[in-house]
Amino acid sequence: MAENKTQATEASVGGFLDGVDHSVRHRDSLRLLELMSTITGEEPVMWGPSIVGFGRYHYRYETGREGDAAAVGFSPRKASLSLYRLLQSPEAGALLPRLGKHRTGAGCLYVNKLEDVDEAVLAELIRAGYRHMTAWTQNG
């Protein structure tokens, strides 16, 4: 069976974020780093070349494919910030209308800049997503 493309690496999170050229994405990435570290209590880890992740969960599909992924995380992409695993919790549906300007798709939450969203609501999404994904591993 093929190995998962996105795996935890030993790459430097600080080095990766220092390389973010877009000034707003860089600033927002540093804030997300602080926010996600505080909420999850986890150290940041690079997953693949461009995802900063916190914690991990284990998945196993009916096909037999299994692996590990970041419980929550983000990536400063060219078009927007991509936030991972914040939409999976049962609370997400009620929180999203209060978040502010955002898009969703492919299981991700996309934000152009953090000043477009309510940071308290974002913190709740992070907390709920992390709690859900880590509980899922324990119970799934």
Low-confidence stretches: none
Give the terminus-to-terminus CA distance. 21 Å
For the largest beta-sheet, the strand count, sense and barrel status come to: 6 strands, antiparallel
What's the arrangement of strands in the largest beta sheet?
Answer: 1-2-3-4-6-5
Rg over alpha carbons: 15 Å
Order of helices and strands: HHEEEEHEEH
What is the number of helical segments per DSSP (H or I, 4+ residues)?
A: 4
The level-1 CATH class = Alpha Beta
Protein structure class: alpha+beta
Strand residues, percent: 25-35%
Helix content range of the residues, please?
Answer: 25-40%
- Overall structural domain count: 1
| CATH topology type | Aspartate Aminotransferase, domain 1
- Shape verdict: globular
Keywords:
140 residues, alpha+beta, 6-stranded antiparallel β-sheet, 6 strands, Aspartate Aminotransferase, domain 1, 4 helices
Provide an overview of this structure:
This protein is an alpha+beta fold and 140 residues long. It has one domain (13-139): Aspartate Aminotransferase, domain 1 (Alpha-Beta Complex). The chain is 38% helix and 26% strand. It is built from four helices and six strands, in the order H-H-E-E-E-E-H-E-E-H. The chain has helices at 13-18, 23-40, 92-99, 119-139; strands at residues 44-47, 51-60, 66-76, 81-84, 103-105, 108-111. The chain has a six-stranded antiparallel β-sheet. The chain is globular.
